[in-house]
């Protein structure tokens, strides 16, 4: 149709101009607002990085304190929203529960109408504040356990860990290594330019749908195994290799055969044709955390063996397939005590500032147009309606 260009999976089409995240996929470089991911992972915290991603600059101490305070203030959710969690079956996967809860949250907010800076900031703080609460409640629902109120005296990460693993009867004991590791993992996920879920957030938002609706759609896009759901799929793959007694060589053979849809989950990336810098950072953290849980080491050994085999195999070398962010995260989340179906929820917690920042960048751009891709029509040409008795 006319001058429409076919671009399967948007592999070559830039749909926006963005000043948030820079990736050089050939060199394995990732920067938020110009700051290298390695420096942020080492020196920053998730809330500070979120501020950077959202507002473009590292905050001063006063700015960070104010931001933190605004978020702490909004962590509690309305009691009626808490009731929502009771309607889902026990053992529901927490991802659809989380998305439903975000949609429901919009009905409790007055900041869904209009795009003036004050309302957008209010919605930003509310979502940043309430997502850990909703995520922890989605988790508690999957366990059939009672929920806990947030505790304002705790940090963002501690609060989430306590709401996830704490009980109403016992004091939750923090492990500083776990708290810091989760902080770092969320920093690594904070933004990744126009990936599938972020593009979804932008596309939904481009119709001027509100931030909650856009983010809720982003959660669904993230859930698929080719995107955020890969962290769950990697762990299931490692466990099945262990439990079925398949050798790494046989598994690799099955992947390369392409007779079925078996993939080496946690490998490959649309943009990185080199080691994903996030995977390199996570691998360094894996050792200190994995020792905390029995059985994790065995899965780590399989992962290391798979990585070694892939990096030395022509199939993977020719296609430039390297470990991505999801290859090692699941192992760490599991060692922290999260079940596999919470892994993608943790990805969503980390990606939230990126989704919001991209949505804000878009609504603040007066030249932005509604997203409306074209297609190449390959169906029937015009034909006459056939009555039922002649079909
Ligand atoms: N295992 C085996 N072969 C693979 C893999 C893999 N993990 N990834 C790509 N390939 C092959 C693919 O079959 C194709 O081969 P051929 O040229 O013979 O047709 C070639 O490599 C190019 O792959 P592609 O599917 O055209 O690449 P893409 O950019 O469309 O897909 C991807 C990128 C991430 C969806 C894909 O690499 C994949 O499915 N990986 C496994 C799932 C995964 O780990 N996803 C997490 C991505 S990173 C974080 C996130 O987004 O959440």
Automatic annotation (TrEMBL):
**What are the UniProt keywords, alphabetically?**
Acyltransferase, Transferase, Tricarboxylic acid cycle
Tell me what reaction this enzyme catalyses: oxaloacetate + acetyl-CoA + H2O = citrate + CoA + H(+)
Instruction: Give one Pfam family.
Output: Citrate_synt
- UniProt-listed SUPFAM superfamilies: Citrate synthase
UniProt pathway annotation: Carbohydrate metabolism; tricarboxylic acid cycle; isocitrate from oxaloacetate: step 1/2
Q: Which InterPro entries match?
A: Citrate_synth-like_lrg_a-sub (IPR016142), Citrate_synth-like_sm_a-sub (IPR016143), Citrate_synthase (IPR002020), Citrate_synthase_AS (IPR019810), Citrate_synthase_bac-typ (IPR024176), Citrate_synthase_sf (IPR036969), Citrate_synthase_typ-I (IPR010953)
State whether keyword Mitochondrion applies: no
Q: Quick check: keyword Ligase in the entry?
A: no
Extract the GO molecular function terms from the UniProt entry. citrate synthase activity
**Family membership noted in the UniProt record:** Belongs to the citrate synthase family.
**NCBIfam families found in the cross-reference section:** cit_synth_I, PRK05614.1
Instruction: Please identify the protein, giving its name as recorded.
Output: Citrate synthase
Q: What is the lineage of its organism?
A: Bacteria, Bacillati, Actinomycetota, Actinomycetes, Propionibacteriales
């Amino acid at each position: 149709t006319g001058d429409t260009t076919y671009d399967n999976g948007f592999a070559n089409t830039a749909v926006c101009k963005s000043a948030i995240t820079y990736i050089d996929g050939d060199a394995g470089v990732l920067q938020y607002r110009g700051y290298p991911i390695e420096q942020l992972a080492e020196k920053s915290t998730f809330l500070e990085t979120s501020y950077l991603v959202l507002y473009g600059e590292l905050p001063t101490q006063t700015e960070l304190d104010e931001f933190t305070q605004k978020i702490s203030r909004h962590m509690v959710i309305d009691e009626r929203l808490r009731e929502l969690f009771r309607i889902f079956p026990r053992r529901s996967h927490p991802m659809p529960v989380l998305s439903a809860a975000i949609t429901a949250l919009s009905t409790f907010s007055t900041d869904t109408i209009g795009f003036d800076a004050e309302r957008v900031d209010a919605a930003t703080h509310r979502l940043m504040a309430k997502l850990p609460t909703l995520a922890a409640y989605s988790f508690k629902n999957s366990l059939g356990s009672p929920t806990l109120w947030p505790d304002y005296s705790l940090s963002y990460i501690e609060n989430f860990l306590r709401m996830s693993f704490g009980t109403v009867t016992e004091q939750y004991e923090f492990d500083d290594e776990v708290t810091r590791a989760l902080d770092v993992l969320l920093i690594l996920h904070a933004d990744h330019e126009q990936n599938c879920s972020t593009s979804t957030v932008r596309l939904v938002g481009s119709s001027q749908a509100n931030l909650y609706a856009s983010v809720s759609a982003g959660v669904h896009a993230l859930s698929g195994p080719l995107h955020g759901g890969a962290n769950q799929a990697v762990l299931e793959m490692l466990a099945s290799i262990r439990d079925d007694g398949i050798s790494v060589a046989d598994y690799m053979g099955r992947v390369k055969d392409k007779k079925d849809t078996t993939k080496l989950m946690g490998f490959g990336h649309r943009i990185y044709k080199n080691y994903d810098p996030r995977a390199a950072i996570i691998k360094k953290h894996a050792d200190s955390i994995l020792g905390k849980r029995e059985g994790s080491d065995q899965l780590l050994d399989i992962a290391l063996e798979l990585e070694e085999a892939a990096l030395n195999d022509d199939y993977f070398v020719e296609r430039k397939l390297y470990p991505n962010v999801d290859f090692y995260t699941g192992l760490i989340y599991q060692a922290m005590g999260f079940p596999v179906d919470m892994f993608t929820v943790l990805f969503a917690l980390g990606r939230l500032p990126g989704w919001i920042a991209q949505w804000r960048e878009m609504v603040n751009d007066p030249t932005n147009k509604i997203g409306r891709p074209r297609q190449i029509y390959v169906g029937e040409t015009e034909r006459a309606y056939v009555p039922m008795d002649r079909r």
